[in-house]
Write a structure and sequence with these properties.
The chain is of the alpha/beta class and about 290 residues long. It contains ten helices and nine strands. The strands form two sheets. Strands 3-2-1-4-5-7-6 form a seven-stranded mixed beta sheet, with helices on both faces. Helix 5 links the parallel strand 4 and strand 5. Helix 5 packs across helix 7 and helix 6 packs across helix 9. It is globular and about 55 Å long.
Length: about 290
């Protein structure tokens, strides 16, 4: 399913460097966040006890989750420690949330301990989908809700095409499409997944403005096969010239394909797949008492 791999250390490095500049460039992230929060209307329980924000970044989403669920324990989790340090600014004494440095594919939480799992534009930076959704399935309570957004393969297609005119090296990260994501969710045992695709087009006065924004967001190439040396000036100029041919109404377009989804934690006892191809079914001790003669 997945023919490419991300350099996790590079992903962490990119976002760590962007911690102080991220909120200067996160217009799209905030728009997607607004749409994602609407999916929480599907959660009909009175008040969740624990809400997990995976890939919380600078904590804007965590703050909104705490506003929505003031009595819940809200945990902002991110793999980049500088991002979590920046998130402290959004955690007030009236509405505090916890901050935990960890990876989404290895959540440091107990089985069935999360009522609502939220993640805004983080999952595209994880290439091991079975591990990712296996962990989501593991920590979600039965009937718990997971909502997330992720970038799809048409994201930055103009920039990718422009670089293809300059050389054959991967300069733009690749992302999985909705079908791969949906298949991985079902394979992990998540219930009733619903996925939608939205496309946004942002425009810029020149291609360099987009590159500055990507750098400020930490959303730069982390593909393991990326070139490690400096990009030559001639190739860079060829890329800029190719991008200029796509100018529309005096502006440079950049497409962002966003996959938005939600799913539910499975009932106790439903098997979930684990690495190695096996399956595990979990039961409480109380449910097993009296069953042995």
């Amino acid at each position: 399913m997945n023919e490419f791999h991300l350099d996790r250390r590079q992903v962490r490095r990119n976002f760590s460097r962007a911690a102080t500049t991220y909120e200067q460039h996160d217009v799209l992230q905030r728009e997607v966040q607004t749409q994602l929060l609407e999916r929480l209307d599907f959660y009909k329980e009175q008040q969740p006890a624990r809400v997990l924000d995976v890939g919380a970044g600078t904590g804007r989403g965590s703050e909104l989750l705490k506003q929505r669920y003031p009595k819940a324990e809200v945990i902002a989790m991110d793999l980049a420690l500088p991002m979590l340090r920046a998130a402290k600014a959004h955690s007030s004494w009236r509405r505090p949330f916890a901050r935990v440095c960890a990876e989404a594919s290895a959540l440091p939480l107990a089985d069935h301990s999360v009522d609502v799992l939220h993640s805004n534009l983080c999952f595209q930076w994880i290439d091991d989908l079975p591990a990712l959704f296996g962990e989501c399935m593991r920590v979600l309570k039965p009937g718990g809700l997971m909502v997330f957004s992720s970038f799809g393969p048409d994201t930055l297609k103009e920039l990718r095409a422009a670089w293809a005119e300059a050389d054959q090296q991967p300069h733009v990260s690749r992302f999985l499409d909705m079908h791969d994501v949906g298949d991985a969710m079902l394979a992990a045992g998540l219930r009733d997944p619903v996925l939608d695709v939205f496309r946004y087009t942002l425009t810029y006065s020149e291609p360099r403005k987009l590159l500055v924004e990507l750098q400020g967001l930490g959303a730069t190439n982390a593909d393991q096969t990326r070139g490690r040396g400096l990009t030559g000036k001639s190739r860079y100029r060829r890329m800029l010239a190719a991008y200029e041919t796509m100018r529309e109404d005096g502006r440079i377009p950049a497409t962002w394909e966003v996959v938005s989804a939600h799913a539910w934690g499975a009932p106790v006892g439903q098997p979930r797949r684990v690495s190695g191809g096996g399956e595990i079914a979990s039961f409480s001790i109380d449910s097993l008492r009296g069953s042995r003669r």
